[in-house]
């Protein structure tokens, strides 16, 4: 799939999120304020943060999909990761604001329950956000987009938030109908629960962004899948090393393999190209594969024994250069060493 098609599809998902969040933000903030619902008003502020996050993601998608250039030889994919981190920070700030607001409401004591329209608004928000979450996550997994994945998990936070808000509002309404004022506290308490759920999701987003920026290794199971493809080539005798770097919606592979020592340069080049093509055909989120070939010798081959001797050579040099070994071969060295030691002891006295 070409970059233009990918960008257009990602922007489509982001635009749908922007429009949906715009409508939900206006509805929840206005209804929450009019219907006296702390939980719904807090959920509306969360949707406002979502709107801002979706707008940021929309603005960066085109940049993240730009091909590599001189200044960015590995591409621009990490721009999506930065946006994911920014969205996580926004969620943290919104959650803290809602917690403070709800705690103050509890301290002062709620005097009335929310109106019924607040409950219906929360339920509509729950249903719409569930659909948006499934829709966004499907595209994020298909195109390996961290920006769209961040939007999807943002919708997931909204699902939980709307459900908790609906529960708190419902309990407060029941309290009003049954004349149980204690249930009035359910609404601000729901706002606090919503905030902690949002904080949990924000923490997961920030942690993932942090790992990718520091080039944390990818899932070991995925690495094993790459290894099985590489080892399917009969010329590959073993994999000496395989590393992968996550760059947002794509990864870079660095592979060292051992091949028969008598393989020609042309044969080695063709083998590396075939392995690269097989990996990139099977996994469309692999952007680049760097393959280094090492000569492989059977254990009974003279060159293999030579390789083992060469590995031990630095240790032998270290042993032979020790003072004890030099003294064995050069007695005058031992005399000179003891002489300088005795002179040092006399000067100390």
What does this protein look like?
The structure is a single chain. The chain has helices at 3-34, 38-64, 78-108, 116-143, 146-177, 186-213, 220-231, 265-282, 302-320, 323-329, 331-348, and strands at residues 238-246, 251-260, 286-296. By secondary structure, the chain is mostly helical. The chain has three domains: 3-213, Cation efflux protein transmembrane domain (Alpha-lytic protease prodomain-like); 220-296, Alpha-Beta Plaits (2-Layer Sandwich), CATH 3.30.70.1350; 302-348, no CATH class. The radius of gyration is 32 Å and the shape is elongated. The N and C termini lie far apart (84 Å). The model has no long low-confidence stretch (mean pLDDT 75). Residues 307-335 have a biased composition (Basic and acidic residues). It is found in: Membrane. Keywords: Membrane, Transmembrane, Transmembrane helix, Transport. Its main location: membrane.
